[in-house]
Amino acid sequence: MRAIILLIGSLLLLATGCAPTTVKPSGPVFFPPAPIPPRIQFLFGIGNSRDVEGEAAQVSLFSMNAVQTDDLKTFSKPYGITANGSKIYVADTIAGRVAAINLQLKTFVWLKGDFGPGKLGKPINLSTDQAGNLYVADTERKKVLAYDAEGNFLKTYGSGYDMKPVDVAADARRLYILDMSRHKILVFNKANGELIEGLGQDSDNPLEKLYLATNMALTKQGLFYVANAGTGSIIKLDRDGHVLGSFGKMGDGFGQFGRPKGVAIDSKKRAYVVDASHQNVQIFNHQDRLLMFFGDPGLPRGSLNIPAGIDVTDQDLDFYQQFAAPGFKLEQVMLVVNQVGRYKINVYGLGKQQEIDYEAYYKKSMEKIRKENPEQLKKKK
């Protein structure tokens, strides 16, 4: 029912001809805009270390030297992002560094193990495993570099394979590297680093084969969602490489993509897809149906600016709740990377305004749409 409610919200947005409207900078920014009940709020943005630490901060254990500092740390052109508990990691491609941010501790430092054999070249995407280890896909070094939860360098994966790793994911036993040069997901043994197999070219349908894939997400159920730039779609595969379906295509309509990039799946099996061309994030339910979108240009705050990576979490909601509007109860938090602009990280919250009866509102609105604009519903089927 919750998925249906979100779908009705997007239908209402279409039927009423609404787009994100100007909001006073001092007030909350919601998606969809009023008068539709809010489902997503822009919470805050991060542009540099001062946005996290304040004017002066204590460097954490990720830093080489635990001393008081006023040094301003900035992003050049970030791309990938991943959250693990209270830690947020951001890959900055041009600077060749990974930022380790802890919002609760108010720390922003560069990855500790980024020197010697652990030196990064051009990190693009990253992820963590259950132990808190960090894996960084580096397109310049043509490897994935692994670090422990304290930021110390551990090992590399993919040496000698001349690959172009653009994303990475891990489970308990295996490491999955998205190789753009081979159009495959390469599967490695985490323990010994040996290549096991390659996934992504088994479908008889050319539209469901990986081609110029840029980003991927691995769900807890073992499903891959891969952003296939070559076809403008999202390909779904299981851990054995079997294609389970796809959604989206090249275009500028709802549910279509211009340049699909970051992909994330939340605990309710909703898929979040970043589109650098449309400059928004589209949300789909577990049946691949478009629910809504957010981040479109034109707002004084909360708009996305050439977005790339995304991660979604329902951890530490109590911490993020303090940034939400009164009565807006958070269910998920979305962290989206902007490659340009003041804020390189936009943080949004998915939730509901507690005093609003969403089901009653959407039911009444659907009845109105059926009476006044039934053709709109037919187009969505």
Overall description:
- By secondary structure, the protein is mainly beta.
- The protein has one domain (46-316): Neuraminidase (6 Propeller).
- Helix content is 12%, strand content 40%.
- The protein has helices at residues 2-15, 49-53, 317-321, 358-372, 374-380; strands at residues 29-31, 40-46, 57-58, 68-69, 78-84, 87-92, 97-102, 107-110, 123-128, 134-138, 143-147, 153-157, 165-170, 174-179, 184-189, 195-199, 213-218, 223-228, 233-238, 243-247, 260-265, 271-275, 280-284, 290-294, 307-313, 328-338, 345-353.
- The strands form seven sheets. The protein has a five-stranded antiparallel sheet with strand order 1-2-27-26-25.
- A hairpin with a 3-residue loop joins strand 13 and strand 14.
- Helix 1 (2-15) crosses helix 4 and helix 4 (358-372) packs across helix 5 (374-380).
- Mean pLDDT is 88; it is low at 1-8, 10-25 and 57-69.
